[in-house]
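Session log. Operator J.P. requested a structure for one protein chain; no other inputs attached. Running the standard single-chain path with token output.
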Amino acid sequence: MENDAQSQLPQNSNLVHSNEKINVNRTIKILEYKGLLWTCALREVCLIALWLPLGALIFCYVTASIFQSDDIHETHCRVYNVVPSISAITGISPQRYVWRICIAYHLGPRLLIGSLYYNYHKERTSHITEEKVRNQATKLGDACYWLNLLELFALTGVTYVSNRENYFLHEKIFIVFMVASLLHMLCRARVGSIGSEAVEPVRTNKLVWILFYLAIAATIGLIIFFLRHRLLCRPLAFTWFSICEYILATTNMAFHAIVVRDLPLHQIQVVCPDRQKVN
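Structure written below.
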């Protein structure tokens, strides 16, 4: 009996050892499987950040024009008006809630894109050999990052502070948004031009300059027609003001969406931390 028990011990130990090997292999497979948990193309994130405000703007314009035309065409001077302003169509209920929800959801992707583009310019700037040019590009890249944050905060403020609720504050936040967005475009176009002889030129730089000049023209028109409406009460002056406002909003959306042309193959990934070492 003792000999039989002793003869079974090696077999049992081999069985335990084989089971341990199976468990180790399973653990390794699970860890390998958990290496990459989620991936998403940067292009999809940019499209989400574009279509959320654009889709909400189209929805607000169409529904407000059909069902609440009297409310959105009411102006300060009570003169004839055809095209309502963005503040008018997003300041009434229920459109204001759709607009606010979409703006809130698009802030996350916008913040992420701003950080990614900042790192993109930082990496590009590091290859510039001339120190003076490199320092200038670095400062412009930092300015782009902080102006993007200021622009986002101003957009949030102008969204959640309606012109019907507090016109004075709404107007001042809108001015901050316009100035920040224009300066952001200018710094982005300028940093893309610097160092093009030493490193690869930014693909979208010419398009950024075009959008910047278009936004400047729309801003000048917006100011002129606002003064004509506010001070002189000219008919259709507010209509032209609203058209300039829509052009400005469209150029701003396009400006933030063209990042996909600079980073066409980039992806956002969620990866499991370093694999555990299994002995």
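Operator note: Residues 27-31 have pLDDT under 50 and may be disordered.
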